[in-house]
Write a structure and sequence with these properties.
- This protein is α+β, with helices and mostly antiparallel strands and 332 residues long.
- It folds into two domains: 231 residues, 3-Layer(bab) Sandwich (Hsp33 domain); 55 residues, HSP33 redox switch-like (CBS domain Like), CATH 3.90.1280.10.
- It contains twelve helices and 16 strands.
- The strands form three sheets. The chain has a seven-stranded mixed beta sheet, covered by helices on one side. Strands 2, 3, 4, 10, 11, 12 and 13 form a seven-stranded antiparallel beta sheet that branches.
- A hairpin with a 6-residue loop joins strand 5 and strand 6.
- The longest helix has 18 residues.
- The radius of gyration is 23 Å and the shape is elongated.
- The relative contact order is 0.18.
């Protein structure tokens, strides 16, 4: 499949989303929610817009979904924290795109984590894996991913695969993503990410093309104002406050509307069929050697630890298919 240069697209085909009464919570509702004892948000992504500015945003909170992923492998605390931030970022990035498929966020480095990869589908199903980090002890982003590169890939169900590879900024993933959007001359976009003790959260702001305000000076002032207020958020607030309460805390003097939340969940995309297809890429002689030695072939999914066992009979159809595809066809 061809890989093209990745271009992040703003929501709803470069236009500001329109909302029906059933799709957003008003500012009055947000203020009411802020005055109540907030419940801890769990596994949701929530979109918001500014009525008087061409700015959209998204918040994400990960709880049980992140804990399910971390329960699969015994990661060190610093590694677990980074997985949470990468997953939060992947969810936020996926909301900037209009597609069916998955977004893959992957980093390779010379640090204590050689490889980290997370995926988020268009319906917010997430999974993650880290390789080679068994000896990782640091909680420092710079030490975990020193001299690293970040690959952002959009893999749609239809059409070409898009990918962009950018260097990692040494102090944080959020700043690395900020730098990417700034350097690539795309829509102005800012990220805030945090993870700790099995919970992760993030917030994104993105300036949309001129629609509400065509005046460039006013647009720049509104963008600077929104980012300055967002920069005041504390990490524990970002993790613990529901979107309505968080946005009231930051933007109670601005007309902000918020969408209903979308559920995020851990869901691995592995299957018996997909692992069998993976076996089809291995040389037949090698597969037969394994069958002779062990009597079966085991395939493990690194993302969810699901095991798939194949007996000789299971592979007979695979070998027959391989033979049929290799046989010459008679033309009539």
């Amino acid at each position: 499949m061809a890989i093209d240069t990745l271009k992040f697209c703003p929501l709803a085909l470069n236009t500001k989303p329109t909302l029906s009464d059933s799709e957003y919570v008003t500012m009055e509702t947000m203020e009411s929610s802020a005055n109540q004892a907030p419940e801890l948000p769990c596994d949701v992504s929530q979109r918001f817009i500014f009525d008087d500015a061409d700015i959209r945003g998204e918040t994400v909170h990960l709880d049980a979904a992140l804990q399910d992923i971390l329960a699969i492998h015994p990661y060190a605390p610093g590694v677990s924290q980074l997985i949470g931030e990468f997953l939060a970022a992947a969810v936020l990035l996926s909301t900037t795109l209009k597609y069916e498929g998955k977004l893959i966020l992957q980093a390779r480095s010379e640090g204590q984590i050689p490889l980290i990869m997370v995926e988020c589908s268009n319906d917010l199903q997430i999974r993650a894996i880290v390789r080679g980090a068994e000896q990782a002890t640091s909680s420092s982003f710079a030490k975990l991913l020193s001299n690293g590169q970040l690959a952002i890939t959009v893999d749609p169900k239809k059409g070409n695969r898009y990918q962009s590879i950018v260097p990692l900024v040494e102090d944080s993933l959020a700043h690395s993503l900020d730098a990417y959007f700034e350097q690539s001359e795309q829509l102005a976009t800012r990220f805030w990410l945090t993870a700790e003790s099995g919970r992760a959260a993030g917030m994104l702001l993105q300036q949309l093309p001129a629609q509400t305000n065509p005046d460039e000076v006013l647009r720049a002032q509104q963008w600077q104002h929104a980012c300055a207020l967002a920069a005041t958020v504390k990490e524990d607030e970002l993790r613990s406050l529901p979107a309505a309460a968080l946005l009231h805390r930051l933007y109670h003097e601005n007309p902000v509307r918020i969408f209903e939340p979308a559920t995020v969940k851990f869901q691995c995309s592995c299957s018996r069929e997909r692992t069998l297809n993976a076996l089809a890429t291995i040389d037949r002689d090698e597969l037969e050697d394994i069958l002779r030695e062990h009597g079966h072939i085991m395939m493990d999914c690194e993302f969810c630890s699901q095991q798939y066992r194949y007996e000789k009979e299971d592979l007979a159809a695979l070998f027959a298919l391989e033979h049929a595809s290799a046989s010459p066809r008679t033309l009539h």
